[in-house]
Amino acid sequence: MIPQTKWWVPKIGFKAAGDVTLGHNQPLFLNLAGSYSTAFDTYWSRLRVGYKIDRITIGPEALLLGNEGSDARRIGGFAQMRVDKTPIEITLSAGQHTNDKGGIFANKEGAYASLNVGFSY
Q: The domain containing residue 46 runs over which residues?
């Protein structure tokens, strides 16, 4: 049996993260990003493959995320737009979320959506 961890109890740990993007100035785009923390065994990973049309990149995405109390998957799509003559990127993604192991969203499925504004340097 997995011990239940109280989410409000702080925990200190080590975190590692990475992000690799290929095809900045090419029509095909690939991004792999992820992180892992020893605090609560938390992990997050995302793969995006896209096709660029002018300043807009569109394509599928897949995510795996969770911690010692839950595991989830997300499959969907994304659209990313670079604002002309600025370092700003706006990304919209949406798809299906599944979580089949514990946590507050145990055995819950449904849609997800996110909006991100980023600044590249």
A: 16-119
Number of domains in the chain: 1
pLDDT tens for the 121 residues of the chain, in order: 455 556 567 888 999 999 999 987 889 999 999 999 998 899 999 999 999 998 899 999 999 999 888 889 999 999 999 898 899 999 999 999 998 776 666 667 899 999 999 997 7
**CA 51 – CA 30 distance, rounded (Å):** 9
Task: Note whether residue 95 is domain-resident.
Answer: yes
- Among residues 73, 88, 93, 91, the alpha carbon closest in space to that of 120 is found at 88
| Residue 8 counted as domain residue | no
DSSP code string of 56-110: EEEEEEEEEEEETTEEEEEEEEEEEEEPTTSSEEEEEEEEEEEE-SSSTTTTEEE
Residue labelled with tokens 């798809």: 95
pTM: predicted TM-score of the whole model, two decimal places = 0.82
Element (H, E) at 37: strand 28-37
Question: Does residue 91 lie in a domain region?
Answer: yes
Q: Is residue 7 part of a domain?
A: no
